[in-house]
Each structure stands twice: as structure tokens, then as C-alpha cells.
Amino acid sequence: MAKTSKKAPAKAATAKAAVKTSNNKPVREYRPDGLAKGSAAALLVDTVCRPKGATNQELCEAVGWAQCMPYVKSSAEKAGVTITTERVDGVTRYYGKRKSAKKAA
Q1: Segments of 9-71 assigned E as strands
Q2: What values do phi and psi take at 85, rounded to 5?
Q3: What are the structural domains of the chain?
Q4: How does DSSP assign 44-89, residue by residue?
Q5: Is the pLDDT of residue 13 over 50?
Q6: pLDDT in tens, 52-81
Q7: Helix 69-79 vs helix 56-63: angle between axes, to the nearest 10 degrees?
Q8: Does the pLDDT value for residue 83 go beyond 90?
Q9: Threshold 0.85, pTM exceeds
Q10: Does residue 95 contact residue 84 with C-beta atoms inside 8 Å?
């Protein structure tokens, strides 16, 4: 009786294959403001730049952290976003304003 070897079924290729560098790390894509696409920093900056702004609680819930304001401030600075605050009825709301693009002369 001859032995037959059974091969394991080939794994299906994923629809989204991550591009990797020579050191086998995925390549990060960056937005024009310098933040990594899909990162917590990008999410926080986008949330604070909404027309209605965001409270500290809304920002922390967006990323699932207990505290995020120091990270929001450093990320906004890196992205060139100015943060202003407004306190109404004991609740502080943060508003982000992106720097406008420079006009070509």
C-alpha cells in the first residue's frame, strides 16, 4: 500500500495585503498634516476640528482612553492645528482650527 500525502489547503489571500519593508514592518501612510492615517492622533485631531468641537469626555470616548488631553495637544501641534477652549455651564469644549494652506504668489 502506497502512502499518500495530504497537503493542507492553501490559505486564501487577504483582500488587503499590507505592504512591508525589508525589515518586515508595515509601511505607514501619512496624511498631509503629518499624522499617520488611522492613528489615534489623527482621530483626536479630526474630532476636535469638528464644527461643534469636542469635550474631554467625547475625545476620550473616541479612542477609548481614560485621559487624552496631553496627547490631543501634542498631536494638534504636530498637525498645525490651533486649539481654543470655551467653558459653558462648567463644561469645557475644545475647538480646533487647521492652518490655511499658503497661497502661491
Answers
A1: 54-55
A2: -125, 155
A3: 40-98 (1.10.10)
A4: HHHHHTSTT-EEHHHHHHHHT-S--HHHHHHHHHHHTEEEEEEEET
A5: no
A6: 999 999 999 999 999 999 999 999 999 999
A7: 90
A8: yes
A9: no
A10: yes
